[in-house]
């Protein structure tokens, strides 16, 4: 019985080897010529270049979007700067007015004024 079992196993191994060998010969491995390898390399290179160009475009778009966000944030600060400039201009105007009023007061103080003499007769003052 052992001999029959061993024979069956050997027969199955031989059949499987023939099947694998037959399958391998159905798809012959073609060796590529140098020109074919060069053409395939050019195609792969072009595909790689296109994919890298697309990645670069995507990165440039992402950078542009970030720049727009930063500019938008910066414009908000421009409003703040404008308000600050307005406040400074108003402060300067106020200081100018104060200087003008002070100068007028000094000029008025420097003038000599004649105080009218009071008369004892109220009829004359009317």
Automatic annotation (TrEMBL):
**Which range is the signal sequence, renumbered to this chain?**
1-24
Residue ranges, compositional bias (Basic and acidic residues)? 33-45
**Alphabetized UniProt keyword annotations:** Signal
Q: Where is this region: Disordered?
A: 26-68, 83-126
Under what name is this protein listed?
DUF4398 domain-containing protein
Native organism is Shewanella litoralis
